[in-house]
Amino acid sequence: MQNWEGNWTNAKFCDVANLILGAVLFVSPWIFSFDAGTVSQNAVITGIAIAILAVAALAAFAVWEEWLNLVVGLWALVSPWVLGFQGTTAMTVHVIIGAAVAILAAIELWIIPSNPPRLTTGS
Cβ–Cβ contacts within 10 Å for residue 39, how many? Predict the structure, then answer.
């Protein structure tokens, strides 16, 4: 039981970290003065998606939430090239946060399958 509890605690720390990263990405257009338009909209929408998925994972774990967080993190990572805002502060923020979210989601996907959380109590 000790091993399972430790892994679930680590997964929750990953979800909390993703929640914070999503919030930072959400407010980054105002903090770092991104250009209005696509770059700012991408940061806001992607940040909201990351935060919502993290809250959902904290409320009731499901593997699909981690897969979606991995996809959204990878989107944030590649979006500067897809949307054409390379070489900007916005690119740096998106790449760092996207990589962090994707790595955290991958860690959770690696931790959880061998020790899934139990949603009920009892022996």
Answer: 23
Q: Report the C-alpha gap between 123 and 119 in whole angstroms.
A: 12
For residue 86, give every residue at least 6 positions away whose Cβ sits within 8 Å of its Cβ, in sequence order, or none: 80
Flag whether pLDDT at 9 surpasses 80: no
* Alpha-carbon gap, residue 90 to 15, rounded angstroms: 23
Burial of 102 (0-12, 13-18, 19+ CB in 10 A): buried
Q: Which of 28, 16, 11 is nearest to 76 (CA)?
A: 28
For 61-112, the pLDDT digits (tens) are 778 888 999 999 999 999 999 999 999 999 999 999 999 999 998 888 887 6
pTM of the model: 0.81
Distance CA 17, CA 119 (A): 22
